[in-house]
Amino acid sequence: MNVDIAEFNRLAVPGLEALTELLVGGAADHAPAPAERRPFQVGWGFVAALHRQAAAVVTLHSAGLGHEGAPNRRLMVEYVAQLQWLVRDGEAAVDSMNKAHQFKHAKLREVADDRGYEYDAAAANTVRDEVIPSNPANQYSQMNALAKSLGGGLFESYAGETQLSHATLTAAGCFYRESGDTIELSLTPTYGIEGDPMEASPFMAFYLLFFGMIAFNNLMVGSPWTDDLKAIGDAAGLAGAI
Question: Are 90 and 134 contacting, i.e. CB atoms less than 8 angstroms apart?
Answer without folding.
Answer: no
